[in-house]
Each structure stands twice: as structure tokens, then as C-alpha cells.
Specification:
L-amino peptidase D-ALA esterase/amidase, alpha+beta, 26% strand, globular, Ubiquitin-like (UB roll), five-stranded mixed beta sheet, homodimer, seven-stranded mixed beta sheet
Amino acid sequence: MSVTAAKGFVASGVHCGIRREKPDLAVIRSLPRATGTAMFTVNRMQAAPVKVSKEHLDVAEPQAVVVNSGIANAATGSRGERDARTTACGAAGLLMLHPTEVLVLSTGVIGQPLPLDRVLTGLASGVRALSAEGGVDAAEAILTTDTCTKLAAANGPGFAVGGMAKGSGMIHPNLATMLAVLTTDYPLASGEAIEFLRPAVDASFNSISIDGECSTNDAVVLLANGASNVERTPASDEAFALALRRVCADLSEQIVADGEGATVMAEIVVQGAATEPEAKAIARRIATSSLVKTALFGHDANWGRVLAAAGSAPFNGGYAQLDPARLTLRYGGITVLSGGEVIAVEPEVSGPSCTIELDLGLGDGRASYLTSDLSYDYVRINADYRT
Amino acid sequence: MSVTAAKGFVASGVHCGIRREKPDLAVIRSLPRATGTAMFTVNRMQAAPVKVSKEHLDVAEPQAVVVNSGIANAATGSRGERDARTTACGAAGLLMLHPTEVLVLSTGVIGQPLPLDRVLTGLASGVRALSAEGGVDAAEAILTTDTCTKLAAANGPGFAVGGMAKGSGMIHPNLATMLAVLTTDYPLASGEAIEFLRPAVDASFNSISIDGECSTNDAVVLLANGASNVERTPASDEAFALALRRVCADLSEQIVADGEGATVMAEIVVQGAATEPEAKAIARRIATSSLVKTALFGHDANWGRVLAAAGSAPFNGGYAQLDPARLTLRYGGITVLSGGEVIAVEPEVSGPSCTIELDLGLGDGRASYLTSDLSYDYVRINADYRT
């Protein structure tokens, strides 16, 4: 499991002193030369480490990743960028890499500067501690108030894909940062990683929602070092794509299940939309609706809220197409609406999971989204972080 | 106050039996011939009464408005449309108007049919009860779980503008419906009402948020009957526009203050945006962020959340422009960020209101938004409606 599931990767997680007692610094490194890529938050308030990592990816293949938790190094101005660069330089020196071969990621409080001395001292311990068994330690060091580590791995014929993630669980920090680091010993040529990563992320990390918030630090990294020495064929490429999707989906589900205050997990399935982007817009709008999410918490199939959300899904400056007379809605497996006419008013909803299926009857667009409920605990966690 | 503040309007609020004991049917009528207009929800799941009222406005000047609470007549298919038309016909018969001169509005549970017999019987009582003192009764009959009536009036030289509204407060119904009916004895020619109503609504009802939800039934109606007999001049037009804006702003503030579970009211002011639509997109994103709203509830100036929300404001299929290095943020009057650099980390926030001012330093775009906090009570109200 985790980032050391695939051959040729070492990792560690240590305590450097940003957080009081918990491990707060992870290092992941590929031993053979790797190729890699990353996808970052689209938030315009990108944190300093996101900006610096993007610059590094533009000029070099990533060989190592450094992640700190506790402080996001976001909204930290010019000092924040210097600190992120210095962190990459420090790691590069210890790992005998070029600074641009190191990606830096941060998660935690916004608006506070990194304690750079502690980070640099911690990096020395972190690099010393690197081992092929260090994946779990690394996964622990990137958590904030997640209640458990998020690890996954999948095997293909002769190769492996591993990964770790942290989700939207934070009390002290200001933001729900989603971070994931994925590693594989499958051989990829330079520039290929993004072709595999993008569809896997779209179907997983980009299809979940805890509270509709988009962080300044979200990042997903993929490193591929070819240490499996498998022969590539179209079939093996397909097996790799599948394994990568499975690891991403597995980590995504763990993130939603550990969402702040979550008691119910719901899968929103939208089909029959005019286009696929519209299906996604509608699924996302339902998955992020406060009214839908509080109803899930109350185990109350307020399906009118689903329709109201579907009818107001922002799309291309307007709203996604929807014809009330063509809608079919199944809530928890019960058909409540068919061809726009009411079939059943109050389906039973209970248990820790629920499926909401909306067919728009317009075309072939299809998308699904995982979401959690909006509970008292979500409010408590996010309102009372000082107590 | 209310819809009978202006000359020549009568109104009533009666109990017709949709709801158990509370008044649930309001009638508003202009005695002199009126001109008028309405603005409706942009939700694609428009309720039957919205569809029917739009058709009526296309062919006739509205003379009367019928509003029922308790059932939204939304997602009710072909029967819902028939019921809305029959309601308008019934009122028209009693009021000696053409059916297309009657607007019908509904608020309440989605997916249930109107009890048409009760509505038609209630209309007879409602029309008998019409009086120039009936404005408050009408305002009571349109409430769902609002905790108080929302009334406003403003006088110009020789004329008056009055209004009533209901806000986003509902336990039993499935949706937060915002309804407002505005009346004036200022003389307007046919087709003019919308020119005055649109800017007033944009600056008020379209600039508030309780939970970012957009209902299937939202509507704002304006009737103008000229009963004041004032002489129109450019100056009187300006006075009328101002009075209308004041009534809309007053009702909007009452809606936010009575928002579900609201304990804090916050004004979000965005300036220096590249364009005004972008300022509005950013203000709206901040005002609807669950993280910003839970922080308000906790009296916790988590200003990083404001920046993260601002950086992810959807605009034209992408995100509104923002340059982190040019931001200035004042939270509760304290400058926390200037030119992208941190000035103060933890401003004090207390009391029932708060101002959040973000200057983007890019252009002249300016917008403001009123919002409330996200509290335990919001979750309780929306999760536990059956208890």
C-alpha cells in the first residue's frame, strides 16, 4: 500500500515541529530516474508551493516530493515563494538532485509563514529515514485532521500503482486541502504521465465533494520510474490506466468517507443529459447543495431539493439544459418521478449510503459524483476550531 | 407598510386549509387599472405557477396577485399547470378580471398537488376580505416558517411604494422560496415597470444569500396603479426609483436577518475587480462559501477562507480574474492583507454583524452581497423537518 507499493520508491514521514506532536513532513523519492506530472487546484489564489512546483514541472522531470502539513504557505506573498524554493533547494541538496526535480506541497493554515529552520532540519531527518517501508509514515505526515490515513494500491501484470492522499478534514487549518501522491513502477516516457493521470483524476478526485470548496493547495502528483521493467503493449497500457483509476477511485472514496462530520455517503448519478459536461455540472450542483446534503443527514428523501438543484446548475454562463417534463428520478432505488410526473412521494432512506439517479431524457451525457452529508459536526468542526 | 401602503390597493390573507392552522392564501388587487411586471427564478425546474404567470404577463397587464403557502405546486407535471390556471380563473371570476390579468404564486412543499377545492373556496373568502388595511394579513399568509412578517414602505413626494416578502425559512417545505410583492401608486406606462424593477432587484434580492440555493418558485412582482396622480418629471422618476430600491433593500435585509438559523449578518463588499460582473461573481462566491459561513457562526475571522473562495468564483466557464499580489482584505474593519502581504493575522470578530471588504486592485468592478452564517440551527431546520 501507499507510495512505496511500487518498486524503486522510498518514503518517510517525520516530525519537524510545524505541528505540536504529530508527524508533519513527508518525503517521497524515486530511486531510478522517474518521469512524472502533477495536476493542481484551479483556484486563482494558488499557494506558493503550487506556483513553485508548477515552475519546476515546466523545466524538469520530478524525482522527489516534499509535503508539509500544519501550514499551507498560502497568502504569504513574496516570502512564501522564497520559502517554498528554499525547501525544494534543501531537499535537492540532501537528495543530490537539482532543485527543479523536487516538488513541494503544503497543507494547513493560510496566511502564516513556514518555520523554515524547522523544515530544513526536518528534511535532514526525513531524508535519512527514507525507506521502501516508509509509505505509511509518509501518509501519516500529510494528514491534518483527517481521522485516518488514506492508502491504496493496485497491481497490474508485472507492475504496481500505489498512492496516498489526505482529504477535506481540518479543524485548525483554514482550508480543506486535497493532496494525493501516486507512484508506479510502470514505464512511461517523458510527457506521457499526464495523459494517464487526467482521465483518472477527472473520474475520481474531480468527482467528489465534501463542501464544494476549492482549496488553494489541492494537488495530485504521479511519479513513474519504470522499475518493473515490464514490456509495454497496448494491453499493458490499458491495464496500467485501469490500475491508476482504481487507486484514484479508492483514495477518493476514503476521502469522502472521512469527510468532515460525514455520516452518509451518497452517489449522484446523472444520465440522459444533453452533453457530458452538462451532466457533470448537474451532478456537481446536486452534490454540493446544502439543502440536499442536510436532507441526507436527516435521512429524509426530500427529492424536490434534488430537482431544484438540478435546475440551477451553472453551465457556460447560464444553466445546464433540463426539461421538467422529461425527468426521471430514482432516490435510494425508488422511482419518485417519471416523465415529469410524481410516482412516489416519500421513499424510505436509511443506512450509511444512498444513490440518487436522475435521468434527464435529453441525450447521452452521463456523470457521477460522490458526496457526503452536511451534519452538525461539519458546522462544529469548521466553526469552533479554536475550542 | 406592506402592499396596501400605496393608494388604490386592497389585500387580504385568509386560511383556506392547505396548512393546518396558519393563514395560507393572500390576494392583492389594484382598484384603478394598473400596469406591472414580475421577475422570476432562473431555475430550469420552474414551478407551474411561475410558468402560468409568465404566460399571463406576456399577454396582459397584471391587476391582481394570488399567493398560496404550504404547497409549491412544483414538479407536479401537467396537473400542476391546470391547477395554477384554474386558480387564476377562479380569482378572475370573483374579481371580475380576465384570467390573464391574475398572477399566481405558490410556496411550500415540492411534488404535492394543490388541494384545488380548498383554494377555490378560500379565494371567495379572500376576495370578500379585501381591504385597504389588509396588507399585514396578506404578508402573514405568504410565510412558511419565516419567524416574522417582512413589510416595508417608502414615500416619495406625493406617492408611496409598499411591499411584502417571504424569505428562505422553511421546515416542512422542501425549498427556500423567496417571494416579494411590491405595489405603488406612482404612475407608470405599460412596459416601464421592468425598467425600474430590474436594477432595484439586482441590488437587493439578487444580492443576498442564505444558502446559495435557487428555488423553483422565486418571484418578485411590481404593480403600479397611478392612484397618487402625481405629475411625472425626471426628478420624480428618480425619487420613485430610489423609493423602490429602498423598499427592496429593506425587505432583503429582513429576509437575511430571518435566514434559517442565522445568528450573524455579514456584508461582503468586493471592489477593484476587473469588471462589475466579476465583482458580483466573487462577492457571491464568498457569500455562499460553507467555510466562510461556518467561520462567521464561530465568530472566527478565518480570512484565508475568504481568499480561497474569492479565487474560485465561477465566471464565464472559468474563474473571475484575481491576482494574489494585488489583494487588500479588511475583515471587520481590520486590514489583514495589503498588496498580497499579511498585515494582521487574527482580527477580532464579535457581534451580530460583520463587514468583509476585498479590494482586487484590478479595475473598477464593485459589488456587495448580504449573507448570514451557517449554524447548527440551519442543519437542524433542514435535516429534521419531520420531528
